[in-house]
From TrEMBL:
The lineage of its organism: Bacteria, Bacillati, Bacillota, Bacilli, Bacillales. GO terms for molecular function: carbohydrate binding. It comes from Bacillus infantis. This is TRAP transporter substrate-binding protein. Keywords: Signal. Residues 1-24 form the signal peptide. InterPro entries: DctP_fam, TRAP_DctP, TRAP_DctP_sf.
Length: 337
């Protein structure tokens, strides 16, 4: 009998020890030690250092350092230091750069399924778009980069898209007629603005300020973040906070390098990117009102345009792009309410 009591006690202690271990790894991200390999990665992106994507890159660096016990370090190259997005993607694909946060807009010109993210008014708000990150269809869109030697890891959101105008208060889509309007080089974005009657001018970010200042363009598709960081309030009087499209960066890595890592190290990469992307969206969502006030304080007239006025153009977009790709169709079927 005494023997059984002893045995029972040992089982009880083992169960308690196992439960305690399970609880602590649930509540606190223990730094996984991985394989022991050391890495110094390069990460490139297009935005200035006060933009959310750069902050997300810094968060990623910090998370990698912490979770790998210092084995994984990152050198960040912001503000197009390594060239245009086309250059950066080429460098990531060839392996001379390891990571990039590249606009999904640019990626839509290399991998058409990314067009799905530019379905106008597909999401109620930033949080709803962020929830879409975890869906099968969003992950399958990332998977279309495999054939380019790129591992699509996740999406990092900045604020939604708005419309800025140099000196005309555009109150309805028809007011866009004939405006020279800067749009990121991306086929679905260009098409959307063409459907509104604007003449889309395909200009990369670094050329936009001078173009609107000198009157080469009458307005631009932008986010509030870059409107502040690039001081567009100095050269555009009107800001229509339409939030008509979301603005994800695709967090990507050279696929060969990723594939060669141990499973434990892959997990560190995946979890660190996820932490950075979560940080980015939570921080950004809380800044919306502050950003609008900042722009008003800087003299820009901030206003809204009724979403219902865009309904015919939304329909046109879906009818054009839905049939072009099964992933775009699945995306629209999943998120259009
Ligand atoms: C743009 O091309 O409009 C853009 C690119 C990156 C971040 C923000 C805006």
């Amino acid at each position: 009998m005494k023997k059984f009591k002893h045995f029972g006690l040992i089982v009880l202690v083992l169960v308690l020890v196992t439960m305690t271990a399970a609880c602590s790894s649930d509540t606190e991200a223990e730094p996984a030690s991985g394989s022991g390999d050391k890495y110094t990665f390069k990460l490139a992106h297009i935005t200035p250092t006060d933009h959310m994507w750069h902050k997300a890159a810094e968060k990623f660096k910090e998370e990698l350092d912490k979770r790998s016990d210092g084995r994984m370090q990152v050198e960040i190259y912001p503000a197009s230091q390594l060239g245009t997005e086309a250059d950066m993607v080429q460098q990531i694909s060839s392996g001379s750069v390891d990571f990039g946060f590249i606009t999904a807009a640019y990626m839509s010109s290399r991998a058409p399924a990314f067009t799905a993210w530019f379905a106008p008014y597909a999401f109620e708000d930033l949080e709803a778009a962020n929830d879409a990150r975890d869906t099968e269809v969003a992950k399958n869109i990332l998977g279309t980069l495999d054939s380019q030697g790129i591992k699509g890891l996740d999406y990092v959101f900045a604020g939604n898209r708005v419309m800025l105008f140099k000196d005309k208060e555009v109150k309805k889509p028809e007011d866009m007629n004939g405006l020279a309007f800067r749009v990121t080089p991306s086929p679905p974005l260009q098409d959307f603005y063409k459907s509104l009657g604007a003449s889309p001018e395909s200009l990369p970010l670094p050329e936009v300020y001078a173009a609107i200042q000198t009157g080469v363009i009458d307005g631009m598709d932008m986010d509030l973040d870059a409107t502040i960081t690039n001081k567009y309030y100095e050269v555009a009087k009107y800001g229509a906070v339409t939030n008509h499209m979301v603005w994800p960066a695709v967090a990507m890595m050279n696929k060969d390098k990723y594939d060669k890592m141990s499973d434990a190290d892959k997990k560190i990469i995946d979890e660190s990117i996820k932490a950075a992307a979560d940080y980015s969206v939570t921080t950004r969502a809380s800044q919306e009102e502050e950003f609008k006030k900042n722009l008003s304080d800087n003299g820009m007239k901030i206003y809204e345009i009724d979403k219902g006025l865009f309904d015919p153009y939304i329909k046109q977009f879906d009818e054009k792009y839905g049939p072009t790709d099964p992933l775009i169709k699945e995306f629209l079927d999943t998120f259009r309410k």
